[in-house]
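Subject: Sanity check before I submit

Could someone independently write out the structure tokens for this chain? I want to compare against mine line by line before I put it in a report. The sequence has 703 residues.
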Amino acid sequence: MCSVTDPLRLNDNPLFKELKDGLPKSEKETMNILEIRDDILYVWNPDKCCVFTLNVAATRGKTGEAVPFQTLKPTDPPIFEITNLLINETATQLAIWGNLGIVVVELPRRWGKDNAFQDGKKEISCVNYNLTGYSSQLASTEVRRVRWHPGSPNNSHLLVLTSENTFQLYECEIGETPKLIRNWKVGPTPPISSTKFIANVESLGETAVDFDFATPTMKFDDDYNGNGNGSWHKIQWPILVLRGDGDILMVHGNILSGSLTKPDVLGALSMYPPAADNYGLDSCSIMCIPTTPPVVVIATTTGKLYHALLMREPERDGDDEKTWSQYGSTYSLHTPDDALFVFEEVEMELGLLFTATDKKYRCPINLHRDKGNKLRYFCSHNAGIHMVTVTMITQLEEYLNANEENADLSLPSSLLPSSIQYLLCTRTKYSGNKEATPVLGFGLLQQPCSLLIALLHSGIIVDLSVVDRDYLPNVDCREPAVSSSKKVTREPFDIYIANLLKHDSASQPITKLGTTKLSGKEYLELLYRATHLFRTNHFIKHDKVRAEIAKKVRVLKDLKNHQLTELDNLTETRKHLHGKAEQLAERYEDIKDKQEDLAKRAEEVLRLVNYKELSTAERADATQLKDLNQKVSKELAFRLDKLKKKVEQQRMHMEAFKREEKKNSYVLSAKQEEAIKSNIGQMGKSIANMIAQVKAFEDELDI
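---
Independent answer below. Compare away.
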């Protein structure tokens, strides 16, 4: 039944009915396992470790019937939890990642009805590569943020930010194993934290939590003469890195070039006007809107959003210049030339029915860019979804596009405030702190009008129409690719299970009671402690391992059945192609014979045509040549007959000679041959005795 929150009836689609049963029930943080690209909805199924796809545009046009969905099955499914799904601009590769690793999936081609994958095939095997190995019991490296590089010429470069303040750039060429081509640090490595020891504020503040690409820039060489003939460096995409304490670093340099030099990491950008708390000490997300100049959005866990312009910092006196060392870092970084000019602060309402005296709810904020409209963006979090419209961008564009002759070139006296709209609420004042109400997926369908599709923690799909007042197309630049030979390894499943079974420092020791008799209460407390430790430290791990193994077995069985079905289909296809090949071969032979016949007929026609066009003299010569040919043929035939007769005579002479030789040959009998052999043997022995006697006489006579 159609409802206000589901006009497309997506909840009745078999895709979301099956997905609802496979969603995790204990997830407490907002994720993004859903994305829409080119009218195709992609969503990760954590239960079957596969990607479901659905043509949402076809669903919009066929509201009365169910549109079938397709299943993309990775050939090597991940063994860690997936929290995000990201597609490159050309929709050729899909990156699914979580805190423990990254998986790059190659998407199949689309054709046929509704432009579906492989003409609407229900289940498709997709080659994938696992970029795991970020977390284990001994190393605390985790994935913080993954983004496709917008400057990659073939949309194959993946940039990863880890918990060790390290950037890793992978080249994911289609058909090749991903390669780690560059890595560099943007801050000190934070200490390893655990459940027993809480990291200090300084270590939390120096940890990078998010990054985004700013608008591209062009850096010219020193010998550039300004007429376009000088050489310049390639287009650079600056990277804005957000730390937990609110500081923003900037990375300059073309990381896609083949140069081995590491990019320049500029120190914390100055923020104007200055604030005592540096605009929040609990920053969680950053986003750069591609305008001129760029608008940077900074989100905090308290629900506050800061809008700032990224521009060149004005010249300062030597006393006012800040360096990285003033922030207590041991890294020597350059002083940035850019600064952030904060022009607005917006606060979101995280949940309903909160009063001034109530404790505000806090949670991470995920920022989503609207590629069809620069004026707005979306925020998803544990309390729902917000839409923010930055009206100041309209004033900024009007000022930049103003005509110098007919318009006022002065800046507007006042800036229009941004509007914020609470689109979807999943939490109220009476929701418990431990109650899970996250948003698991967020996507936008652009045409013909913007449609918001969200996947809630309960498995319900919400699709809402969003009015698109201004449409500004997004143009992305491209950068050339680089190559490298560094390979990426993945964590085996047995090691993953072994890591899950490792216990913490708290364990239940073997009890050896002395002569002292314990009271019943003490025995009960000891039993409760042991029971609690087994339940929290042992049984949970074994239950998780059992669930992981069962899921792995289930996925492998499903994958095996799918591959067997694919094998049968390929066998049938091969037989069909073999029959087609035989038919084509027979047709080719028939056509070839027909062509040869036609060629002979054409030669005969040409000969007749040429014969009819001969002159009188040529005809006389042709007649003479024909007579001469007949005479020569007769002479050759006569001589050939004579040669054949001579050959026959020679053959008869040879046969007579052989018969004569057989008559003159003498044949010995067996007794004669034996007598001759014995006589020859006796003669040989006599000769040998005589030679021995002669040698003896020579020795006696010394000859």
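---
OP: Matches mine. For the report I'm noting this point. The first helix runs from residue 14 to 22.
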